[in-house]
Sequence to fold (338 residues):
Amino acid sequence: MECEEKVEKLLNIIERVANAEYERDNWRGILDSVAELFEADGAAIGEIKDGYVYYTKVSSSIAGNEEYDPEKFRVPVWRSAFGEAIKKGYIIVNNYQSYERAVEEWKRIGLRAKLVAILGDREPFGSLSVGRLRSGKPFTEEDGKILRSLAFIFSFIVREEIEKKKLMERAIKDHLTGLYNRFYFEEEGKRELERARRYGYPLSLIMLDLDDFKHVNDRFGHQKGDEVLVKFAGIVKRSIRKTDMPVRYGGEEFIVLLPHTSLEEAVKVAERIREGFSKVVFREGDEVFKLTVSAGVASCEPEDCDLDNLLYKADKALYTAKREGKNRTVVFSHQGIN
Fold:
């Protein structure tokens, strides 16, 4: 690509960023242009979380790959090209297949050359990256400096987006467990039921309550009680799909709203959670203990879905589970509690 053409494409990208075009498609169109500028097969913006870089904003070529999952293709901060790029703001890896810090998933899909620039100056918080799969053409130092300049411009906007996201999460999520809070559930739950009615899919709800949880707080203190709640929330997250809505409803009571889910399928999820939690061993000093959870399950067909009614049914089923001995899943049906 000629120098004049590169400058024109670069200015076009900067203009589109200035016009906030990234708000329409989560940076996809702009990253398509970044990939084109560097004659790359893909471009991505990654954010650091828990010691890994997750590429959550990607160009169309990456987003269109059915294999792509930010979790699966995450990059360790200090054992990858990202860690090396921190030294001078960018790094060029033109032999990725033999690179000692290569990430296996990226090697597996055939990544041949990669260029990474750091987002953030004194405190790096992410990266802007481009890669070549088909072409063996190497990236140059000039490419590295251009990408570093783009990363500098992108940094201010991406950082602001991350801060806004954090504020939003604080508003809609329970600070202890990381699950959605009751306020979010009551608002988004109604919208989910409206979608179920509009598009004609079944919807189910599981209400869960930790058995004898008060004894944990009374005997071991609230810190141990918090540990139990966090552990249970983790089991819930691992037992459901990304499209489901896990909620800390209050105290030791939890809800899972499951779109596109029949009553029978919801029971399987409830049992998976109940059985998983019953296997967890807690320790406090020399004492070892286990806990159980009771579940009530209800479902509704698209034509008669109502959030308050669904909650009422699941609550009735949960009450029956508690009354019948706890550590069980009970289903509400139109004929009564089963």
Q: What stands out?
A: The two ends are 70 Å apart (CA to CA). Residues 146 and 268 are 53 Å apart (CA to CA). DSSP finds twelve helices and 14 strands in the chain.
